[in-house]
Amino acid sequence: MALEHAILVSLLEQPGSGYELARRFERSIGRFWTATHQQIYRVLKRMEADGWVTAEEIGQDGRPDKRSFSVTEPGRSLLVEWLRAPVQPEAVRHELAVKIRGAAFTDAAGRAALIGEVERYRAEHEALLARYLNGEKRDFAEINDDGQRLQHVVLRGGIAYERMLLDWLDDVLGTLRAL
């Protein structure tokens, strides 16, 4: 998937400025596709030049004008074409898993250090799960349309993934501590 597709989806959900898009990426889209502010602005500029989005200048009192982007028909067509294309399973790159395998070749001190790293990693994912669950309560207490249903099913996938990961990390910690 390209960043362009994630931006098109976000703008179809709600037009917005580059700053607003970056905030959405931090808050929701970032659950499954990350991008920096600079990347978003760079891609928006290219998408506008390609005719996939259009920008409207919006005046703001006491602040510089902002540009609010929305998807054009060519942009919508591009997204529909992309939606119809088959998806290949992603290759997984998981540095922690390689470190865990490497624990077989270290001493007790190395394994103890790895336990600390797994605990830190687990705490980060536990916090992420808590944010997802809070977001679910906040954003999906009432679901009114198909778009919300689809957003919610993606969030539920993120919740399920984090729960599975936490279970696995508990298993890893139990195994490392038993060595």
What do the pLDDT scores average to? 92
Instruction: Give the terminus-to-terminus CA distance.
Output: 41 Å
Count of individual helical segments = 7
Report the principal-axis shape: elongated
Count of separate structural domains: 2
Beta-strand share of residues: 5-15%
The number of strands is 2
How are the strands of the biggest sheet laid out side by side? 1-2
**What is the string of helix and strand elements?**
HHHEEHHHH
Residue share in helix:
55-70%
Radius of gyration: 21 Å
Helix-and-strand structural type: mainly alpha
- Major sheet size, sense and barrel closure: 2 strands, antiparallel
Low-confidence stretches: none
Give your account of this protein's structure:
- The protein is 66% helix and 9% strand.
- The chain has 179 residues and is mainly alpha-helical.
- It has two domains: 3-84, Arc Repressor Mutant, subunit A (Orthogonal Bundle), CATH 1.10.10.10; 95-178.
Write a brief structural summary.
It is built from seven helices and two strands. It is mainly alpha-helical and 179 residues long.
Topology (elements, then pairings):
Layout: H1 3-13, H2 18-27, H3 37-49, E1 53-60, E2 63-71, H4 73-84, H5 95-102, H6 108-139, H7 146-178
Antiparallel strand pairs: 1-2
Helix pairs in contact: 1-4, 2-3, 6-7
From the structure above, extract its key features.
179 residues, mainly alpha, Arc Repressor Mutant, subunit A, 7 helices, 2 strands, elongated
